[in-house]
Automatic annotation (TrEMBL):
UniProt KW Protease keyword: yes
Pfam families per the UniProt record, alphabetical: Peptidase_S9
Record's protein name: Dipeptidyl aminopeptidase/acylaminoacyl peptidase
Domain of life: Bacteria
Organism: Inhella inkyongensis
Gene Ontology process terms (BP): proteolysis
Segments of this protein annotated with the region Disordered: 175-199
Keyword annotations of the record: Aminopeptidase, Hydrolase, Protease
Annotated ranges, domain Peptidase S9 prolyl oligopeptidase catalytic: 627-780
Gene Ontology molecular functions: aminopeptidase activity; serine-type endopeptidase activity
C-alpha cells in the first residue's frame, strides 16, 4: 500500500516550475539561422528555427499506429524543425538588404526547400486541420498556397521529390470519408508458430483489427504532381499506402514503394510487406519490381533474403537499382560475398543484371553527377569496419577508395560533396574531368581542421585542395566554380558565418553574431587525462562567471558512454574540440549560471570485442569515473566530496550504473533512460546477443535488478510520450517503484506531452528547476 501511495504522490499533477532567472534568459536566446544557398547560387535563405513547440500544439491528440504517431486532422506528426522566421537576400552581396518573408499565422512552418532552378522555394504549414504546401519567389515577400492540396505525412514524414526545376511529386491526402468506428471490445490475441522471430522491443504497435483499419484509412495517399509556375496540381494513378516515391532520370518514370497486407502486430509499419513498382509519368504501373515480405524472423543484424533498398538513378540513364543478399540474409552464414547490387535499365523489360558483389553488407549508394559511376559503401558489422568503392555503373571492375573503422575520427575521409541537378536529383558533384570531392572534419589530437580532398576517376593519389588553418573550424559547403569555395566559419560562441574562399583569401558574406551572452560568461577548462589502462579521456569543466581561483564547487558530471573496438579508437574520442555551440534547452550546462560546476562532454569509452563489449561495461565505467574524479580533484576547482552523476538516454543508464557500482557520487540525475535490460531482450545499443545468450551480462548491467545497491538520492525525469525503442516511461516508473519500495530517496518527474527529447518551453524550464533544486538539496549550496 505504501508503495502505491508513493508512486501516486510522484505522479500527482503539479504546475510547471520556472527555472532560475539566469537560466530562463539563456533558454530564451534565439537559435542561429540556417544558411541555405539556392542551387543557382544567386540567393541565400536564412531560416531561423523555432526553439520550442507550443504546449497546446504538443497536447493535441495523436494516433499511434504501427510505430507511427500523427494527428488525424493533418495526417502528420509535429515537425522536429519548425521555422520562427525566414529571410532571403542576394548571396554574393554581404551588404544586401534581407527581405523578410511573411509567414501567415495559424500553423507551424517547416520543410523549406529551394526549387532546383533556384527561382522558387516551397514551405509546408502544419495546422490542426491540414498539412499544406506553399511556395514563393526570392523577389516577393508574400507566399502562395497550393489550393486544394493537403499533404499526407503518416508514412512519408516531410520529404518532397522534385520532378524538374519547377515541378515536384508529393503524397496527398485522399477523401476517404469518416474513419472506421471502433467495435465493442473483445479479446486481443497474438499467436506465433514456426521459426525464431527476434524482434526488438517497439512502441505503438498495432493491437487489433480496428487499429489496422485506422492505419489503412489515414495512411492512404495519392501521388500528385505540382507545378509551381501555375500553382496547379493533378493526381497520378490510383491511391495506395505509399511511403516512398523517387523520380528516375529526368522524369522518365517513377519508382514507388507502398505497404500491402497482411499487417503485423509485432513490427513497425516500415517492416510490413511492401510492393515496389515502376510507374509512367502519368502514374500507371509499368512493372512490378519486387514484392518485399514482412521483416519477420530476420536474425539480429540480418536482412531479408530477396530484393531490398531500392534506388532510382537521377542521371539520364534512369536505371533502377536494388540490393539482394547472397547469404540468405543471415550474417552467421559463411560466404565469400554477402550482397550484390542489381540494375534494371529502361525500357525496364527482361531481367535485371548484376553490377557488383560485396564481401560485406551493403550500406549506401550515391550516384555521381555525370551518371557513369556511383559510390558504393559496405559495412562489416563483426569488425565495426566500413569500405567505400568507386563503382562503374556498366558493371566493370570497381575500385576501393578507402576503408576505416566505424568509430574512426582521425583518419576519417569525410563525406562526398553533393549537388542538386537541374532536374532535382541529389548527386555527388563532379568537375569537368570527372573528379569529385570529399569534405571532412579533419579531427586530430588538437581539434578540428576541416578539409576537402579531390579524387580522380583514374587511379591517382588523392589530392588535398583545402584545409582550414590551425585553430579555425572552417567547413566547406559547395563550390562556386573550380577556384572558389563557399565555406562556413564556426568561431566559439558565435553563429556560423558564411564566406567565400579563394586560395588564402576568405571573404565574409555575413556579419558575425554572438550566440548567447550567458554562455560566453561561463569560465571553461578543457581537461585531458588518461585512465589506468592508458586510454585517453577528456571533459569540459564549466565554472560560474563569478568563480574565483581556489574555490572548490560542487559539480554535476554529465556523460554518454560509447563502445569502441580498440583503445586507439577510444582515445580518439578525447581529441580537443571547442565547446562553441548553443547547448539544447535541457542541457545541464545552464546550471553553471547558478553557481555549480558542470562537467560536460566527459568521454566514457567502453573498449572490447564487438560481440562481448558489455561483459566489461561495469568495470570500464568504474575506471572512467575514477580517472575523471581524480582529474577534477587535481583541477582545484571542484569539491569531489560533493559530486552528482547524470545523463540522458544511454547516459542515464550509465549514471544509474555508476550509482549502483561506485561510492563516488552523492546524488544522480537520470533522464529518459532504460534500467531493466530484460525488457530489451533482443539487444540494445551495440549489444547483438539476446538475453538468453548473455543472461549474466543482461542481469548484471541492469541497475533495476541491483536496486538495493543504490543508496544515493536519484532524480528520474522522463517524457511521458517517449517513443524511443527501449526507453518507454515505464522504465523510470518501475525503477522509482523499486527504490521507493526499498526505502531509498528517489523522485520521479513525468513530463506530459514530451518525448525522448524536450519540445516545449514549459518542460525545458521545469526540467532546469528540477535539476537545480535536486543539486541544492543533495549537494548543498553552490559555494
Amino acid at each position: 500500500m505504501a508503495l502505491g501511495l508513493a508512486l501516486a504522490g510522484a505522479q500527482a499533477s503539479t504546475p510547471y516550475r520556472a527555472a532560475p532567472p539566469a537560466i530562463r534568459a539563456a533558454l530564451d536566446a534565439a537559435l542561429p539561422a540556417r544558411n541555405l544557398i539556392s542551387p543557382d547560387q544567386q540567393w541565400l535563405a536564412l531560416a531561423e528555427p523555432r526553439r520550442f513547440t507550443p504546449l497546446e500544439e504538443l497536447a493535441r491528440p495523436q494516433l499511434r499506429l504501427a510505430g507511427a504517431r500523427f494527428e488525424a486532422g493533418n495526417r502528420s506528426a509535429p515537425p522536429g524543425y519548425a521555422l520562427q522566421s525566414l529571410r532571403i537576400r542576394r548571396l554574393m552581396d554581404a551588404k544586401a538588404s534581407e527581405r523578410r518573408i511573411a509567414l501567415p499565422g495559424g500553423g507551424a512552418w517547416h520543410g523549406f526547400a529551394w526549387a532546383p532552378d533556384g527561382k522558387r522555394f516551397v514551405l509546408q504549414r502544419r495546422t490542426a486541420q491540414a498539412s499544406e504546401l506553399w511556395w514563393g519567389t526570392p523577389q516577393a515577400e508574400a507566399l502562395q498556397r497550393i489550393e486544394g492540396l493537403q499533404l499526407n505525412h503518416v508514412l512519408s514524414e516531410f520529404e518532397l521529390t522534385w520532378w524538374s526545376g519547377h515541378e515536384l511529386i508529393v503524397l496527398a491526402t485522399t477523401q476517404t470519408g469518416a474513419p472506421p468506428k471502433p467495435p465493442l471490445s473483445g479479446p486481443q490475441v497474438q499467436e506465433h508458430q514456426g521459426r525464431a522471430s527476434p524482434e526488438r522491443s517497439l512502441p505503438d504497435l498495432l493491437r487489433s483489427e480496428h487499429d489496422e483499419q485506422l492505419l489503412a484509412h489515414y495512411a492512404l495517399s495519392q501521388l500528385a504532381r505540382v507545378d509551381l509556375r501555375s500553382g496547379l496540381w493533378r493526381r497520378l494513378g490510383e491511391p495506395g499506402l505509399f511511403h516512398s516515391v523517387a523520380v528516375a532520370g529526368h522524369g522518365q518514370a517513377l519508382l514507388t514503394e507502398r505497404l500491402t497486407r497482411p499487417f503485423s502486430r509485432a513490427l513497425a509499419w516500415d517492416d510490413f510487406p511492401q510492393t515496389v513498382e515502376l510507374r509512367s509519368p502519368q502514374g500507371k504501373v509499368l512493372r512490378e519490381v519486387a514484392k518485399v515480405p514482412a521483416r519477420q524472423g530476420v536474425a539480429i543484424d540480418g536482412v531479408l533474403p530477396g530484393p531490398r533498398v531500392f534506388y532510382a538513378s537521377p542521371g539520364a540513364d534512369a536505371a533502377i537499382y536494388w540490393v539482394e543478399a547472397l547469404d540468405g540474409g543471415n550474417p552467421q552464414t559463411r560466404v565469400a560475398y554477402r550482397d550484390r547490387v542489381m540494375r534494371l535499365a529502361p525500357p525496364y523489360k527482361g531481367e535485371a543484371i548484376e553490377v557488383q558483389r560485396m564481401p560485406h553488407r551493403f550500406a549506401r549508394l550515391r550516384f555521381l553527377e555525370q551518371g557513369e559511376h556511383a559510390l558504393l559503401t559496405e559495412v562489416d558489422r563483426s569488425r565495426a569496419w566500413t569500405r567505400t568503392y568507386l563503382l562503374p555503373l556498366d558493371g566493370s571492375q570497381s575500385r576501393a577508395l578507402f576503408e576505416h573503422a566505424l568509430r574512426e575520427r582521425f583518419r576519417h575521409p569525410g563525406s562526398p560533396m553533393m549537388r542538386t541537378t537541374p532536374h532535382g536529383g541529389r548527386v555527388v558533384a563532379q568537375a569537368g574531368d570527372g573528379s569529385f570531392w570529399f569534405a571532412g572534419a579533419g579531427v586530430g589530437p588538437k581539434g578540428e581542421r576541416p578539409f576537402v580532398d579531390r579524387y580522380s576517376l583514374k587511379d591517382h593519389p588523392v589530392q588535398r585542395v583545402f584545409q582550414a588553418a590551425e585553430g579555425q573550424v572552417e567547413t566547406a559547403l559547395t563550390w562556386l566554380d573550380g577556384r572558389r569555395l563557399f565555406t562556413q566559419m564556426e568561431r566559439p560562441l558565435e553563429a556560423p558565418q558564411l564566406g567565400l574562399r579563394e586560395g588564402s583569401q576568405w571573404q565574409a558574406l555575413q556579419s558575425p553574431r554572438e550566440l548567447s551572452p550567458a554562455l560566453r560568461s561561463l569560465k571553461r577548462q578543457y581537461l585531458s587525462f588518461k585512465r589506468e589502462d592508458g586510454v585517453e579521456l577528456s571533459a569540459w569543466l564549466l565554472l560560474p562567471p563569478d568563480h574565483q581561483e581556489g574555490q572548490r564547487r560542487p559539480a554535476l558530471i554529465w556523460a554518454y558512454p560509447r563502445e569502441y573496438s580498440d583503445a586507439e579508437l577510444a582515445s580518439q574520442a578525447a581529441a580537443f574540440s571547442d565547446l562553441g555551440h548553443l547547448p539544447p534547452p535541457g542541457s545541464p550546462v545552464w546550471l553553471a549560471l547558478e553557481g555549480y560546476a558542470v562537467v560536460y562532454e566527459a568521454t566514457m569509452p567502453v573498449v572490447g570485442d564487438n560481440r562481448a563489449v558489455n561483459d566489461g561495461l561495469i568495470e570500464q565505467l568504474q575506471m572512467n569515473a575514477r580517472a575523471l574524479v581524480d582529474q577534477l580533484h587535481d583541477s582545484g576547482a571542484v569539491d569531489t566530496q560533493r559530486l552528482a552523476i547524470g545523463g540522458q538516454s544511454y547516459g542515464a543508464f550509465m549514471a544509474v550504473n555508476l550509482l549502483t557500482h561506485t561510492n563516488l557520487f552523492k546524488a544522480g540525475i537520470a533522464r529518459s533512460g532504460a534500467y531493466n535490460r530484460t525488457l530489451t531482450p533482443f539487444g540494445f545499443q551495440s549489444e547483438r546477443r539476446n538475453l538468453w545468450e548473455a543472461r549474466s551480462t543482461y542481469l548484471r548491467i541492469s541497475p533495476f535488478l541491483n536496486a538495493e545497491k543504490i543508496t544515493e538520492p536519484l532524480l528520474l525525469i522522463h517524457g511521458e510520450q517517449d517513443s524511443n525503442p527501449g526507453t518507454p516511461a515505464l522504465q523510470s516508473e518501475r525503477l522509482y517503484q523499486a527504490l521507493a519500495g526499498l526505502g531509498q530517496a528517489v523522485r520521479l518527474t513525468l513530463l506530459p506531452y514530451e518525448g525522448h527529447t524536450l519540445g516545449s518551453r514549459e518542460a525545458a524550464s521545469h526540467l532546469q528547476w528540477e535539476m537545480h533544486n535536486w543539486l541544492r538539496r543533495h549537494l548543498g549550496p553552490p559555494r
